[in-house]
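Lecture 7 notes: from sequence to structure.
We start with the chain below.
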Amino acid sequence: MRRFSSSLRLLALGLLGLGAFGASPAVSASIVPHRAIYAMNLAGVKNGSDITDVSGRMLFEWRDVCDGWAIQQHMRLHFSYSDDDDQDLASTELTWESKDGKRYNFNIRRVTNGKETENYRGKAQRNDDGSVTVTYSVPNNKTVHLPVGTLFPTAHTELILENAARGDKFFTRRVFDGSDADGASDISAFVLPPRAAAAEEGLDAKMKENPLVSGNAFPVHMAFFKIGGETGEPDYEMDLSLMPSGIARRMKIDYGDFSVTGNLQEVEALPAQNCP
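Predicted structure tokens for the same chain:
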């Protein structure tokens, strides 16, 4: 029977793609370092899938650490199957990205039913010609070279917000986040005009009144493609309701056979750093 041992990896990759929602001067926004908690639940399944339920929660924290953006993401999910052979999946992801977009550190660990199944650690450096070299400490002796134009997660989200502010709807870029054995994927992003919190399906009533997320948010659709994939079909797709502050009000991740939603349950602003 098929098991989605990679389900958490895909979900975490998509959420890590949220990055630290920093903004450039082109975006009219007041960026809010924050801590958010999301309730994760099954949204739907296709005929033939043996998944009967998905539930869990995710803690997402973004901090401004003066020289860069530091992200912590902790997630636990329980997958229920029709044969009662359930799975408990957990992920911890710690990343740091320099504000100039030249350096990126990652430390990612995933556990299935109490046993470590994935572990990736390393550093990425943008070279003088704009290309990127990735050196892994885990697994050992692994080096990856990525082409000019490759972005790290924060820079990619900056680009989303820049395009949203200009009214540009569509773009595709290669993004490295270190979240799997390949580390990079091609992401096509489609941005729609902003909408009010009152129109947000699934958003908790108390969140609609929270000043951190009560304003307009951009609906963003992203399709994630494996590099060199032959089918032309995305590996998975993701919909976000993205505030100009960088807070994701709601998300939906569609893997084809099943989809999962993440609804914001709690959010708080984090204190600013006293940077020199």
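Points to note: The chain is about 10% helix and 50% strand. Residues 7-269 form one domain.
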